[in-house]
Amino acid sequence: MASQDWLDKDFYKVLGVSKDVSPEELKKVYRKLARKHHPDSNPGDAKAEATFKGITEAHSVLSDPSQRAEYDQIRAMGSGARFTAGGQGRGFDDAFRGSPYSGGGGFPQGAGFEDILGGMFGNGSFGRSSGGFRGWGGPSKGQDIVSTVVVDFFEALHGETMTLQLPSGNSVKVKIPAGVADGQKVRIRAKGHASPDGGEPGDVVLTVTVSKHPVFERDGLNVRLVVPVTFTEAVLGATIEVPTVEGETVKLKVAPGTPSGRILRVKGRGVKTAKGHGDLLAEVMVAVPTHLDAVATKALEEFAAKAPKDNPRAEILQRGRR
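Predicted structure:
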């Protein structure tokens, strides 16, 4: 979808990135800006809402390789791609100067008007059709409606069907697929703006923002969570229960001598999509007691006196030396 107003919008400037920004960096910058300016974080702030819409539109175009290439091409042509009636603007003839058809002295011998345009814009024709004016390849597609939809963690995980209100006043049902990731796009075909010259309507393109969960965190197709265990459970071993994204619990075995940071894996209990299933990754965190009575303190001191005297920091002290 090539929007006419792309000529007047610098999406790179909106996001504060360079024109050669990588897809990974683009996504990182967008997420940071989206969190800062999201309407949920700035209730009643019209300026923040307008900024959020602007960065969402910019990210929607630049994150799509085909749209980004088309946008760069249109912006590179600048005002020279427009028809002008003289004055300071570049006229239509100016757009050909410096092109392979110019040679500094007009069109090459034997080249017709359609040949020139075919070379610049592809092999399509240039003229009028029964549907109105067309640039190349037939009537143009209507403009897309670009927006953002916020879903909670479990809606993204299991899928959800919701009804959205369009600018026209009409509503459309949107199916958020199970396993959709934060920043992923959902496209609803032919529900966007009508074509100005009889072509097909544009689409509705939604960028999904997934709300954070207090326990679970998405990691690709895996789901992570931190599981506290007591000092005794970590030292002596134990069988513990942990929650899953399905709402039930599973039992995990903590081996004797388990340190903080060890990952306990539950196969197939992560994100489930058509491309595969992930796992549940439980990271052990040893919970240190903060309040001990005199009896417990004495028992711990007796344990310390009898415990091995190995220094757990010996290796990093050795490796840390010059």
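Summary: Confidence is low (pLDDT under 50) at residues 79-135.
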